[in-house]
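Quick one: structure tokens for this chain, please?
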Amino acid sequence: MAAGPTSGSMVPLDKTLHQLAWKTNSIFFVFDPSENNFHYLSDNASVSFEIDVALIMKDPAVLLDRIFADDRVRVLEEFSHIGTKDCIEADFRLLFTPNQPVKWLHIKACMLQGEPALQGCIVGFAEDITSRKEIEMYLTNTHAQKDVALQILGHDIRSPIGTISAASSLLERSVCHEDLKNIEPLFRIISDTCQNALNLINDVLQSVYWDAQNTVKKKRRIDLVDMVENQLHAYRLLHQDQKDFKLFSSTRHVYIRSDQVRLQLILENLLSNAYKFTKRNGTIAVDLQEKEGKVQIAVKDDGIGIPDRLKPMIFQKFTNARREGMQGEKPTGLGLHIVKTMVEQLNGHIWFESGEERGTTFFVELPKKGI
């Protein structure tokens, strides 16, 4: 690269433009679309695009090869309207080797009118906005994580608090009637639920400050059979004789290495959802199946099912598919969206099968090594 500003200009340009391009590290250009060549292109282009200016002047199309495919379509679309607008603007990413960080450029250009020598030419500038974009994306990501954290806390803390409240009421009745056989398991439910709620709060608050995918790192060996049986035991004890809870498993123990807090939240949300939409004396079953390198969890109910018109919206945030439960439970429209988010954080996949008045089955497939 030359030591100072130079130009491939075919038209005399003011020296101020040369100095401005060099000192501001912006790319100034004059392009003639009718001849498909640059009348002027500042040397700064070689720094941003990592292509020698002489090569660009010889074949301007090499610049397009440097732009991300998705952004390229948008930039070309903007330039196609340049004759009908005062100016066009676009942000785009430059594509280099996979190990190089993404570079962002902002371009602003207009078509010259009234200058005979430059009639119909496009004049403009491009500047490196990588630092600004990184800050914007960081703030956007932080804001999104904060929203998710508040949503999870607002939605999922209510469930353990409800469990503790129900267990406390049963405990009080058991003590009054000297039904001592229920006291120990109720104490265990209260203790475990409190600990799970505290783990959830700590985990979610941490995710406000760290990228969600990176926070899913508390890997441990988990026996899904024991985990599900414990959750079903709590449901059986707290909702006596209202619904039948069953567990089926391909083997006595189904092990997975994954994040325990998220797994518990996934199961709790799916069980809570099944409970809400199953009539009294209905059946809720959890089926665990081991596959090659994977585990499949199916939560099935024989409840009211999901109407076809609501199925496309089931996993949306604050979805219009939310409905009041069979016992009048108020919906938030967040539960299944949160479940899908956590399943994806565990590198898994979730889907469902349902028919009106034929029940619903949610399937979660997770890699055995989890995350």
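The CA atoms of residues 107 and 195 lie 54 Å apart.
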